[in-house]
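Hi all, long-time lurker, first post. I run a small reading group and we've been trying to get comfortable going from sequence to structure in the token notation. Rather than ask abstract questions, I figured I'd post a concrete chain and ask someone more experienced to write out its structure so we can walk through it together at our next meeting. Sequence below, copied exactly:
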Amino acid sequence: MSTETNNPMPRINEPAPEIHAKSTHGMIHITDYTSQGKWVMLFSHPADFTPVCTTEFVEFARRKADFDRLNVQPIGVSVDSIYAHIAWIRSIEENFKVKVTFPLIADLDQKVAQAFGMVHEAVSDTATVRAVFFIDPKNTIRALLYYPLNLGRNVDEIVRVFEALQTAEKHSVSMPANWKPGEAVIVGAPITQADAEKRVASSGQGLEVTDWYFSKKKLSEAAAKQAS
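-- Answer (accepted) --
Happy to help. Here is the structure in token form:
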């Protein structure tokens, strides 16, 4: 069965497509959560009762405290049925002693998968790849990740992305490579020659200035705690 679509894949800083879908928690919309000020992690997996997906769900369940701390609502989706979802979740809870508390969408008609570009026909036209959409409380897509079917996601990195996005939003800064909470952040570069000269002269006054365009600073302990 061909599932080709002319709908463009949603991109960073675009509104998240509307969702009205059946899930293990009943009918849900993404806006049910974003309207309450929550961030949303919408993620797809290829199929229920598969080993790699099971390891991911176990880890997502184990990291509930991190998602709660960051005000993030995980929402899973695959093209399996509600009954398969319920049976699989019960199996995970029984075998791995974790509680899966987030909703899992049953996307049998692939409406959600197609709207978010989760089905890649070069891989499979009947299963979603491992996509992750980071959606802010304004219902805007802030970041996205894609993984192939045979590669489980790094949940530490997913949590780090939410921490980085929220820190950047609160403090109008950027994050260097491999940034983790508590580490120095990047300050925006000056946009005039005069400001560039001031930036270099301000080295050591709360800024770590390597050159006029490259400066870092440490957030205060109170600010860092607020961001996390």
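A couple of things your group might point at:
Helices lie at 31-34, 51-62, 64-69, 82-96, 111-115, 155-171, 193-201, 221-227.
DSSP finds eight helices and ten strands in the chain.
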